[in-house]
Amino acid sequence: MNNDQESDRRFNIVALSFGLLLVLLFMVSLFSGRYSIPPGLMCRVLLSKVIHIDMTWSRTVETVIFNIRLPRTVLAALIGGSLAVCGASFQGMFQNPLVSPDILGVTSGAGFGAALAILLWNQVALIQASAFIFGILAVFIAYIVSRVFRPTPTLMLVLSGIIVGSIFSALLSLIKYVADPNQKLPAIVFWLMGSLAGVSKKELVTVAIPILVGTAGLFLVRWLINILSMGDEEAHSMGIRSGSLKLFIIVCATIVTASSVSACGIIGWVGLVVPHICRMIIGSNHTRLIPLSFLGGGCFLLGVDTIARTVISAEIPLGILTALIGAPFFAFLLRKTGGKPG
Amino acid sequence: MSGTAIELYETAFSYGQKPVFTDVSGKINRGEVVCLLGANGCGKTTLMKCMNGLLTFGSGKAFIFGKDLYSLNSKDLAMKSAFVFQGYSQVFSYSVTDIVLTGRGPHLGFFSFPGKADKQKALSILENMHISHLSSRYFPTLSGGEQQLIMIARALAQEPSILFLDEPASALDFGNQQYLLRTIKSLADVYGITIVMSTHYPNHALTVADKIWAMKDGRIISSGSPLEVLTEENIYKLYKVPARVVEVRESGINSFAVIPLDDTTGDKEDYFIPAGKGKQNEQCKM
């Protein structure tokens, strides 16, 4: 009993410090950027939405804060956190710590969808819609293909995810090949490397709501993921219908991943590595792992995005930075802890 | 606590065209310990998985406490019967408490979480099994015997009336085997749990079983009390090993044991001879 309370206490401390770090990074991210806004002014502008304060600032300041910086900061934290939650859920469900949210081909599908839309129309709304639809479509096909073979669905899911993923990667290459190399091709390549530069107030609704819904779904079944991670047969013997639970997790994670890819392109590494880092800190129990992954993923992507838009005058693509920062940090942690929890 | 726990009528199961067992019928009473004996691949595990609803009988009828097995959904079934698997692949390392808590699964809804009462239940099971000192350890750091006990504790957290155990003693040392058998016996005697277990050790069956089902090539060739089933003739049928059943009297208690005899009739070519060695000998002769 004592030790159990001890690990609860440990989780509370870790979660609290991750939460504080997230708030801190949120502030830093809001204050930093090319259009400099002093912290005092920033606070007054933010508060003016809640209580009445005389407007002593220009409209530009308000536009920068509410239409650009705040949405971007909120989305960075939300997308990072929810991708990490998807990663943790999939790793548990597939009983494999090397799985990331794109195992079922969602990012390949979304990448193809976005590239196709860039090639045909090149309008932001259509690119997002196309990426979202093709991301969902890829996972749907992978799921249907895996259902054809009854006996070992988990392995079949992984294999059909690989099959569908590689088909969409090939189609993506085809589009790159035929795209105009002066305008369209760079747009496609840059999009694929991931960036939050394009997000505005509108995405807070179109992207954040589906992400929140999917993440909430995963939060609700996080204890059951413990049972699922022990294998189908054991889950069955404990009265859990693993088929419907798996489908629920896949649907939630796919909504989250497809939405986030449609908003900011492909951001790898968060969903793979953040759950690992969190597992090293508080162990594998998904009841704790998933909330902590949400906070950790939020911190990670918020930090990386702030670096991406402040270090040099141009934007650095997120996909590059997540790996460049995440990989060495992960290697350091592995060496330090030996990969063991606690 | 009387009545029948499990009834089977002419049940059969096959993987595709290959039959695993056929025409298996039998009754298991409440609180009884039934041991399934038989050589590797004779269908013991498959039969137990069918009885627990993990696999579906190909034909025949099965009843659990008088109810048709297939009228129960998986949740109801998991509250009536639990399964302790042989070997477990743990990819993630959970603490012992977390693992035992997963046994509360059938008692909780789709979106719910184990509460204080569930946690208390898990801990009291560990206490009753005298292993509460393991509660905060991580599962992979435990010894094989301790891991097996934790898996039993998890099954008990389901609060089952029937407990299936697949080769529960196979990975344990001599002392832990006896400890496990005593635990199983007291689960039946004290808590009235019906136990169905498969085992490779006829001696274990003699120690704990009320009834033995002896299986060969997918059929029950003999069932009844341990001494009725474990005759020298049946042991030879099951394992192709000549043996004697001996009786040891100590402090007024009779214990029985199966002792394998040196095989003088068997064909020596059946035994393992390293290929390299055999050849060398031939060369020496030449």
Task: Give the oligomeric state of the chains in this entry, treating copies of one chain as homo and distinct chains as hetero.
Answer: heterodimer
Identify the most extensive interface between protein chains: A-B, 37 and 38 residues
Helix content of chain A: over 70%
| Classification by helices and strands of chain A | mainly alpha
Write the layout of secondary structure elements.
The complex is a heterodimer of chains A (342) and B (286).
Chain A: H1 2-31, H2 39-47, H3 59-93, H4 106-120, H5 124-148, H6 153-178, H7 184-193, H8 201-206, H9 208-220, H10 222-228, H11 232-237, H12 242-264, H13 270-282, H14 286-310, H15 318-337
Helix pairs in contact in A: 1-3, 1-14, 3-9, 3-12, 3-13, 3-14, 4-5, 4-6, 4-7, 4-12, 5-6, 5-12, 9-12, 13-14, 13-15, 14-15
Chain B: E1 4-15, E2 18-29, E3 33-37, H1 44-51, E4 59-64, E5 67-68, H2 74-80, E6 81-84, H3 96-102, H4 116-128, H5 144-157, E7 162-166, H6 174-191, E8 194-198, H7 202-208, E9 211-216, E10 219-224, H8 226-229, H9 232-239, E11 243-250, E12 253-260, H10 275-285
Parallel strand pairs in B: 3-8, 3-9, 6-7, 7-8
Antiparallel strand pairs in B: 1-2, 1-4, 4-5, 9-10, 11-12
